[in-house]
Amino acid sequence: MKFRIKHEIRGRIRLQSCRNKLTDAEADALQYYLSCREMVDSVKVQERTGDIVIRYTGKREELLQVVRDFCMEDVKVPADCRQSSSRRLNQEYWDKLINRIVLYYGGRLFIPYPLRAVLTAAKSLKYIKHGIQTLAKGKIEVPVLDGTAIAISMIRGNINTASSIMFLLGVGEILEEWTHKKSVDDLANSMSLNISKVWLMREGQEVLVPVNMIQAGDQVRVHMGNVIPFDGVVTEGEAMVNQSSLTGEALPVRKCAGGYVYAGTVVEEGEITLQVKETNGSSRFEKIVTMIEESEQLKSALESKAEHLADKLVPYTLLGTGLTYLLTRNATKALSVLMVDFSCALKLAMPISVLSAIREASTYKITVKGGKSMEAMAEAQTIVFDKTGTLTKARPTVVDVVSFNGEQPDELLRIAACLEEHFPHSMAKAVVQAAKEKGLVHEELHSKVEYIIAHGISSTIDGKKAVIGSYHFVFEDEKCTIPEEKEEIFHSLPDEYSHLYMAIEGKLTAVICIEDPLREEAADVIRQLKNIGITKVVMMTGDSERTAKSIASRVGVDEYYSEVLPEDKARFIEKEKNAGRKVIMIGDGINDSPALSAADVGIAISDGAEIAREIADITIGEDNLQGIVTLKTISSCLMRRIQNNYRAIMSFNAGLIVLGVAGILPPTVSALLHNTSTLCISLNGMRNLLPEEKA
C-alpha cells in the first residue's frame, strides 16, 4: 500500500493513502499495526479520506520505513480490536441519517399529497401511542410533549407541520443515539484490559508466558492481588474476588472450584486456577459498555441534577402551552411552546460532556471510571500520597545484598527473587529484576507463599521457614534475631537506602539495600497542585521516620506520617472527610487498597498492583505524576463547561418560547432551532477541554 506525505512537523506526520479511501478492515489493520510500534505515541486513521495522522518519537526515516513495510495480509488484528472499532458504528449511523433525509425530501417531491397525508397519519400513531403510554404510567415526560404536538397538528389538518415535527424528532433521535454510543464506545476502549503476561499451568508447574499464547481450555493460575485475565471456570483453589469493575458491588465474592470468574475482576485474597473459556476479551468489553450505560452511581451530582430538572420541567411546558392557547386562542403559538422542551438538551448534553472529558483523559493515558470521580476531583482540597512507587519512582533498584549467614550475595538474591516474584509491589519487582539482570535462575524452591499485607512474605524452603519483608515484620512479628557476630555490620547499614530483610529459621540471613529515587517531577507537581486548588498535601508511608522526613522535606508536602499501616491511611482519610474535605488518595500497592477505597477519589499508578488499579476510581497510565495535574485541570474545566451548558440551554430555549408566543417563530422553526441547539451544545461538549498542543 502506498502513501504520500501531506504535512509534517517535528514528532507529527500526516499521510494520505494513494487510493484516497480505505476499507474498514484495512483501516483497522493499519491502526493496529502502527499502534503496536514502540516509537508511535498515537495514530488516527480516517478510512473515508485515507488520512493517517501519526505522533511519534525517534527518527523520521525509521517511522517512514515502518509505514513502507505495512502489508495488510501480514497483520492479524485481534478480534476484540475489531469489535471495539468505532468505524462500523459511524458508518451505520451515517447511513441511517442520509436515508432519513433522502426519504423525507424525496417523499415531499414525488409522493402525492393525499398519499403523504395517509402515511403521515400512520407514522404519527407511534408517537401518540408512546405519549399515551407514558401518561398511563403516571409520568409527564418528553414523549407526552411530542405526542401532543403531533396530535394537535393532525387534528388541525397541518399535515406538513406534523410531518416536519416527526422528521426533526427522528433526526434528533439518530444524532443523540450516535453521539452517546460513540462516547461510550471511546470510553470503553480506554478501559479495556492491559495484561501482557500470565501464569500458565504446564505439567503441574507455573510458567510465565505472554497473554497471546493462551488458548481456550488452558489452565491459568491467578495469585492474590492480580487481575483475572480471562473469563473461565475455577478448577482449583479458593479466593475472594472483587467484581466491582463489572457489577459495582463493593464487597468481594467467594469463588471456589466450579465457580465462574470474569476477565477484569481481581483476586483480593487467596489464589485460583481457572480454565479459560474466552481469550479475546470481547465479553469484558461488552460488560464495560453495560456498566457505563447503566451504572447510576458513576454519574456526577450535576448530571443527576440536570436529569431530574429535565423531567420536572415537562409539566410546566404543558401548562405553558395551555395558558398560551387560553390567552391568545392561537393554536400555532401554543404549538411553538410545545415544540420547545428543555429535557432533550439537559439529558443529552450533560452526560456527553462527562463522557467526552473521560475520553480526553484517556488520551493522556488516564483511565477514569465515572463522572462522579471527575466532580470529586474538581472539588478536592486534600491529597494524600503514598511514598514508595508514587512520590518515589515505581522502579526501585537493588544496590547491594549484605549477607549475614556466610552465603554468597547472589545466592541470597536468588532465594529472595523466588519468594518475591509472585507479588506485584515495587520492592518485589526490584528484587526480581536484579536477579534477572544477573542471570540468576530462581526456580520454585519454596512451598505455598503467604503474603501478609504491608508486612512481608512467609514461606518454606527445603523444610525451613523463610520470611522476607519489613523490619517490623521480620524482627517484631516473627521474632527473628541478628547473628551475634554480625550486629556491628547490621548497625552500619547505609541510611540512604530502604532495607528489605530476609530471615531463615528465625535468623537474619540477608539485608537487601534498595535505592528508591525520588521522581524528578514530584516537587514540581505538588507546587502545581497547590496552585490549582489543593490546600493540603500529605505523605503517608510505612517507611522509617528518617526516610519519610527526608522525602517530605524534598517534595514540599504539608504533613507526613511514617511507619503507618494500611488501616492508618484509611482512618486519616475518613478523618479528613468528616472534617468536610474532599480527599484524593494516590497509591500503587496492595497495602494502599483500603485507603483508595475510603477516599472520595482513589488514584492508582498503573505500574503498581493490579488490585490497587482495580479498586481505584482513576488510573494514571504514564510513569509520571504530571497526569494528576492534568486530570485536576480537566475536571475543573469540565465542571465549568457543564455549568455553562446548563445556563445556555435554559436561556436559549426560554428565548425560543418567548419568540414562539410572540408569533415570531412558527412551530417547525422552533423545533428546528431547538434540535439544532441541542446538537450544537452536545458537539461543543465533545470538544477537548485542554488545548491539543498539551496532549
UniProtKB/TrEMBL annotation:
<dbReference type="InterPro" id="IPR027256">
    <property type="entry name" value="P-typ_ATPase_IB"/>
</dbReference>
<keyword id="KW-0104">Cadmium</keyword>
<keyword id="KW-0547">Nucleotide-binding</keyword>
<dbReference type="Pfam" id="PF00122">
    <property type="entry name" value="E1-E2_ATPase"/>
</dbReference>
<dbReference type="InterPro" id="IPR008250">
    <property type="entry name" value="ATPase_P-typ_transduc_dom_A_sf"/>
</dbReference>
<dbReference type="InterPro" id="IPR044492">
    <property type="entry name" value="P_typ_ATPase_HD_dom"/>
</dbReference>
<dbReference type="InterPro" id="IPR023299">
    <property type="entry name" value="ATPase_P-typ_cyto_dom_N"/>
</dbReference>
<dbReference type="GO" id="GO:0046872">
    <property type="term" value="F:metal ion binding"/>
</dbReference>
<comment type="similarity">
    <text>Belongs to the cation transport ATPase (P-type) (TC 3.A.3) family. Type IB subfamily.</text>
</comment>
<dbReference type="GO" id="GO:0005886">
    <property type="term" value="C:plasma membrane"/>
</dbReference>
<keyword id="KW-1278">Translocase</keyword>
<protein>
    <recommendedName>
        <fullName>Cd(2+)-exporting ATPase</fullName>
        <ecNumber>7.2.2.21</ecNumber>
    </recommendedName>
</protein>
<dbReference type="InterPro" id="IPR018303">
    <property type="entry name" value="ATPase_P-typ_P_site"/>
</dbReference>
<dbReference type="GO" id="GO:0005524">
    <property type="term" value="F:ATP binding"/>
</dbReference>
<keyword id="KW-0812">Transmembrane</keyword>
<dbReference type="InterPro" id="IPR051014">
    <property type="entry name" value="Cation_Transport_ATPase_IB"/>
</dbReference>
<keyword id="KW-1003">Cell membrane</keyword>
<dbReference type="GO" id="GO:0008551">
    <property type="term" value="F:P-type cadmium transporter activity"/>
</dbReference>
<dbReference type="InterPro" id="IPR059000">
    <property type="entry name" value="ATPase_P-type_domA"/>
</dbReference>
<dbReference type="GO" id="GO:0016887">
    <property type="term" value="F:ATP hydrolysis activity"/>
</dbReference>
<dbReference type="InterPro" id="IPR023214">
    <property type="entry name" value="HAD_sf"/>
</dbReference>
<keyword id="KW-0472">Membrane</keyword>
<dbReference type="InterPro" id="IPR001757">
    <property type="entry name" value="P_typ_ATPase"/>
</dbReference>
<keyword id="KW-0067">ATP-binding</keyword>
<dbReference type="InterPro" id="IPR036412">
    <property type="entry name" value="HAD-like_sf"/>
</dbReference>
<keyword id="KW-0479">Metal-binding</keyword>
<keyword id="KW-1133">Transmembrane helix</keyword>
<dbReference type="Pfam" id="PF00702">
    <property type="entry name" value="Hydrolase"/>
</dbReference>
<feature type="domain" description="P-type ATPase A">
    <location>
        <begin position="194"/>
        <end position="293"/>
    </location>
</feature>
